[in-house]
Amino acid sequence: MKIxxxxxxxxxxxxxxAMHRAKGNDMRIEILCTGDEILTGKTINTxxxxxxxxLGEAGLEVGWGTTVxxxxxxxxxxxxxxxxxxxxxxxxxxxxxxxxxxxxxMAAEAAGVTLVLHEPWLARMEAFYARRNRPMPVNNRKQAMxxxxxxxxxxxxxxxxxxxxxxxxxxxxFTPGVPREMRRMLDEQVLPRLLAKAGLQSVTRLKRxxxxxxxxxxxxxxxxxxxxxxxxxxxxxxxxxxYPELETKLAVRGAVPSELDRKLAPMETEIRxxxxxxxxxEDDQSLESVVLDALxxxxxxxxxxxxxxGGIIASRLLQVEGAEDLFRRGLxxxxxxxxxxxxxxxxxxxxxxGARAVASALQVQSGATHALAVVVTMDTGAAGIEAGGAxxxxxxxxEGTIVREAWLAGGREWVRLGAAExxxxxxxxxxxxxxTDERLDxxxx
Amino acid sequence: MKIxxxxxxxxxxxxxxAMHRAKGNDMRIEILCTGDEILTGKTINTxxxxxxxxLGEAGLEVGWGTTVxxxxxxxxxxxxxxxxxxxxxxxxxxxxxxxxxxxxxMAAEAAGVTLVLHEPWLARMEAFYARRNRPMPVNNRKQAMxxxxxxxxxxxxxxxxxxxxxxxxxxxxFTPGVPREMRRMLDEQVLPRLLAKAGLQSVTRLKRxxxxxxxxxxxxxxxxxxxxxxxxxxxxxxxxxxYPELETKLAVRGAVPSELDRKLAPMETEIRxxxxxxxxxEDDQSLESVVLDALxxxxxxxxxxxxxxGGIIASRLLQVEGAEDLFRRGLxxxxxxxxxxxxxxxxxxxxxxGARAVASALQVQSGATHALAVVVTMDTGAAGIEAGGAxxxxxxxxEGTIVREAWLAGGREWVRLGAAExxxxxxxxxxxxxxTDERLDxxxx
Lengths: 445, 445
What we know:
2 copies of one chain form a homodimer.
Chain A: E1 29-34, H1 36-39, H2 46-57, E2 62-68, H3 72-85, E3 88-92, H4 103-111, E4 115-117, H5 119-131, E5 145-147, E6 151-153, E7 162-167, E8 170-175, H6 179-197, E9 203-212, H7 216-222, E10 235-242, E11 245-254, H8 257-275, E12 279-282, H9 287-297, E13 302-306, H10 312-318, E14 327-332, H11 336-343, H12 352-366, E15 370-379, E16 388-397, E17 400-409, H13 412-431
Parallel strand pairs in A: 1-2, 1-3, 3-8, 13-14, 13-15
Antiparallel strand pairs in A: 4-5, 6-7, 7-8, 9-11, 9-12, 10-11, 15-16, 16-17
């Protein structure tokens, strides 16, 4: 417990608790981001949010965040203030080869030590350049200068190694600013050390469910008491809304991997039971990858006609590796006559009948086993009338053609994203033999 | 000069300079972001980057950033530390109606005053709800409780008003966390006060040029010395890369609006001369809005066939209001035979000839005045070979059909975005009578 042990803070009056306390453990963690690009707002600080989230998922909580520029005085002040507030500090950035990268130098100064050459890292960098038949720029030697007695943190994918030092009794972990290098070092080097320091069991896993059609507050109600299904506890439930999808996350911690399986299995079963058909994908799957996998399993193929969604459905599907083998063609139009003419039908209207006719005709014309048509009519939202869109989804497969209708509230962009998601979800449900008419939380009327 | 006047910082050793000094003026500014959603990384802190950038554009610099949660002790500590470091502090968040919104309460405590009801704001909120025929929730009354003697900062679009108070000699500006409310209050209320406080002339404007085909470092070279074109100075040049586009920004400050015009006009002319045909749009225009405006001016219409870009071109165009009147149809396919069949031609190949044939056939079939075809073949990047894509753009209009070929280095996503931009840019150049074969910085071979 360091609270109060450093005497009064700056300013008047004593501060009794200097940092928000983490639940479940006593370790106070601060994230300190450095660099003019971040400080001036030129770069959005996604490194901070990634680090804070990953720590939260592992059962650790961040209590304070600081951002300073590439400036000696600010760095030194921020290191000392963080040392006074926190038990562990993750510093991000400033490990590069240029003169404005000051993290090693200021870490050494704050720790009261000198910089010494880390021979193994210099050799690694030289070997890295030798493999590419290039001489190592002389500036890179700086990246192997670490504070005396620093603990080395490996970076297998870059020239900025990390390190840990103790400054005024607090452990500091220095990480590179390049996002992919930071992410890997955080997971492989920093998190295990923080968990050990916190006295927590050190194996963690994150299980994710992606759903469509259930809002965050209703999902929270539907999953009430779910933590009780994990034998021995240690599982944390969380949500993250990415409209129109909701991500439900289970962060689990245990001593060994088998314990994670044992805790997660009953919870996963219960979550699948409660959220049911609204779960569109799990973990690294996406709605579009699930749709394409289901199509592939049936030797199927697909054609899509979109109106208001402006090509979002085709764009989402085609970003999946291998989609080109299944995706026959996509058609985008906001003109009913053009849409009808392009698929060789005469029913040119943005209506349920139009969606049915376009899906049927497109299936025949493209030779695909499945054809999806999404048409939308916006309600402009005159005085007293909620803005939103009437969505008709036509879906033709070898068994016939169905139509799903819905009315979603919201502006153009909201309806656009919702309609695209709904079209893909109808296709998923049809392919998996699930009902296509379950009411979504977003539906009105 | 407050530096050093608060005695030694926490920890050992004196701190001689506590914050990175702003160039051009002496005011030290801190941004303090509050809220558990930001602290835990659940929400990416785009409010910080927006505020820091806007300040930078107005000639002010942010020297420190702090993030804390919805927690009384952390808020109080952060207010006091910021007061010791800075001359002006912008606090963001914590002005909502719920119990975890603590900004007013902690501001009052830090300033050593009580909270008092701001009658005019209560009346405004009641009127707001009355217009919607709803009773004001009792919790909202909390949003009209401000620290005694606080300066009111108007929020014309929300129920969270802002305010300014002085804490230990430093001026604090409290702003709402809702991004659009924060942005408006920053521009209309906070920035003018900060500029006045800094003794700077208080009219500012931001002029933006969007270009495609010139990298940031080359643009920097091409615009060397450009500041000298502004009579009397006071213009700051900056760049922001959003691949594949580059934004060139001129931030200008003056006493009156006519002075801004006078300073900007010669610089704008010179930038247009130097960047030339690579400027695709200015200010709030986008490449796609420029293309659609040029089409509209010629009573034109458009059809697009995309292969590797997966519908990005159609999606970008159709997000522009009114695009549906000009955009006849879009076709997306990754299969050469499907693509050829869909436009009624027999040349099914992803080649320059294929792009030419598809563009010509699509123009005839759709009845549009202009037809654009973008086909891409990826090079997989075997050992020693740079990964990238061969791009062929076919463009048919009433004068004939042209083909533009290019090879862009990069992975799938990089090539996808580059090819879509290049297709739209070729169309822009063709519509505006500019050469379509000017070499881009991104091109190889």
